[in-house]
Design goal:
The protein has 153 residues and is mostly helical. The protein is built from six helices and no strands. The relative contact order is 0.12.
């Protein structure tokens, strides 16, 4: 479902003749999905071997799952999407700024998570919630902008 959103947004950007932004949205969205799948696969494998009595396998899978840079991909996707939609006139300027601020928060969180020792503490649900809120606000902004464009045409 997420890739349908990415492709739809890229199509809207192509209609504004911003082909580079459309490509950036597709690439950053695809990287985010791919890294999310790698992280999920590592976590699933970790759950499968957790009780197997193989501490080396558990440690390797835990390290892999903890170090997959999904948050960097989220930061890149959020920044590219916010900037592209703002520059393309698809969303109001304030929404583009909110997206860039959210991308900065994700980038700082990703950098801090890479500096912390693995297993230093539980990850916060604030990041995924913020990303979900950003996507919801972006969708509402895009929907409202498309309705205004249809009424004006």
């Amino acid at each position: 479902m997420f890739m349908l959103f990415v492709v739809s947004l890229a199509g809207a950007l192509r209609r504004t003749d911003d082909f580079h932004a459309a490509a950036g949205v597709i690439v950053s969205g695809s990287v985010f999905v791919a890294l999310g799948m790698v992280s999920t696969a590592a976590e699933t494998a970790l759950l499968a071997v957790a009780g197997s009595g193989q501490p080396a396998a558990v440690l390797v899978l835990f390290e892999l799952q903890a170090r997959v840079p999904v948050v960097f991909a989220v930061a890149a996707f959020t920044a590219v999407t916010a900037l592209a939609a703002w520059r393309g006139g698809l969303v109001p300027p304030w929404l583009g700024v909110i997206g860039l601020v959210a991308a900065g928060v994700f980038l700082i969180a990703a950098a801090l998570s890479m500096l912390a020792p693995v297993g230093a503490g539980d990850s916060s649900p604030i990041g995924p919630a913020l990303f979900a809120v950003w996507l919801l606000v972006l969708c509402v902004g895009l929907f409202r902008a498309s309705g205004a464009a249809r009424r004006g045409a």
